[in-house]
Write a structure and sequence with these properties.
This protein is of the alpha/beta class. The protein is built from 11 helices and 20 strands. Helix 9 links the parallel strand 9 and strand 10.
Length: about 375
């Protein structure tokens, strides 16, 4: 059986490092400490949304954010009563009502959202909690930063909405300081306009994990932390985070192949001598050897990665996994559900544990999660 193993001590270490870094910035102008909003979308970045959220609560994190209605309701159904913000906008009244009934804070990002939420508030005779989203150059949810008159007019007409926060989302904070600063300046300009019009903006938050670590001057009142908890960042680690989670599988078959025997799809590997192999029931469908999404990188980065891939292919650079703390080479291509290891001359037995480095976000949700 394949298991995604989450090391509790390492995860606890990361949480404490993040909390300590947040404390170092001190307090805001109102004397409040920096608030950490934990992002638990995508099945808790692969760690299991309920288990991960409960672990964070046990370690002092009390505010959360998700991307979908389903994620929000899973947490409520699991008995989690802490604050939950849904980052995706919605103007469908039936869905909004279900979220409000479950005490989920909504994102308000357009005139349509505002109208639907305000009308729902009137029907329910209650003030609905929202965070206002400003689009400073991401091109997704949010009022466009330059349309300030429309934004002010929309907000001034709301009677059943309480703005508890205002935020934006950085698109390239992990590598482009210039554009990130531009987005930040656009956001601050909008906040100033709202305050001039006596519109309460609530807490302000713009930083994701990378901006939190790279730009402390942009922390404002709160930060949204996701990948930093896992210690899996696309830039230099500033605060000694540990890489969280590994995939544990086992050897299910051992056999001997003759010299000149093909292994795997496309006949990409041929044995050079008599070779003893071990078969492990784990592949790319399990999340092994799955790379980060293309949308994280610039075109120049993609060219560099392509160049490295070609170089590695020409060199026939191998992938390795561990058995009993020793590296074993993978022969042939990684399959959907299996890999083949060269164990020639080694004392490997059926049932031996195999350790594979994976990004938990890409590990299939059907695979069991275990906190150890």
């Amino acid at each position: 059986m394949n298991t995604l193993v989450i090391e509790k001590d390492d995860l606890r270490h990361n949480i404490e490092q993040i909390k300590e870094f947040a404390l170092e910035r001190g307090q805001d102008d109102n004397g409040n400490s920096l608030k950490i909003i934990a992002i638990v979308k995508a099945n808790g970045y692969g760690l299991g949304i309920v288990e991960f959220t409960k672990f964070l609560i046990d370690n002092g994190i009390t505010s959360f954010a998700v991307s979908t209605k389903e994620e929000a309701l899973i947490l409520r159904e699991a008995g989690i009563k802490e604050e939950i913000l849904m980052l995706s906008a919605c103007s469908i009244k039936e869905e909004l009502k279900e979220l409000v009934e479950n005490n989920i804070i909504l994102t308000l990002s357009s005139k349509k959202d505002a109208k639907a939420i305000d009308e729902l508030g009137e029907e329910l005779d209650k003030e609905i909690k929202v965070h206002l989203k400003i689009d400073t150059g991401f091109g997704r949810y949010g009022f466009i930063y330059s349309k300030r008159d429309e934004l002010v007019e929309t907000l001034k007409n709301l009677k059943h909405v309480k703005i508890e926060g205002t935020y934006t989302h950085f698109s390239v904070s992990f590598f482009d300081e210039k554009y990130t600063k531009l987005q930040f300046e656009r956001f601050i300009d909008v906040i100033e306009v709202l305050k001039m019009n006596e519109i309460d903006t609530g807490i302000l938050h713009v930083c994701n994990s990378s901006a939190f670590l790279k730009y402390p001057n942009m922390h404002l009142n709160a930060v949204r932390i996701g990948s930093a908890f896992l210690g899996r960042l696309s830039f230099k680690d500033y605060i000694d985070l540990k890489k969280i989670a590994y995939l544990e599988s086992e050897v299910t078959e051992i056999k001997e192949l003759p010299k000149g025997f093909n292994i795997g799809y496309s006949n990409s590997y041929k044995t050079k001598k008599k070779t003893e192999i071990a078969i492990v029931p784990c592949g790319y469908m399990s999340g092994f050897n799955v790379k980060a999404e293309d949308d994280l990188f610039r075109f120049v980065d993609k060219l560099r990665f392509l160049k490295n891939d070609i170089k590695n292919l020409l060199k026939k650079q191998a992938l390795y996994v561990k058995i009993n703390n020793e590296d074993y080479k993978i022969l042939g291509r990684v399959g959907a559900y299996h890999i083949v290891l060269d164990i020639t001359g080694k004392d490997v037995k059926i049932g031996d544990k195999v350790i594979l480095d994976v990004n938990p976000k890409f590990v299939d949700s059907s695979i069991r999660r275990e906190y150890r």
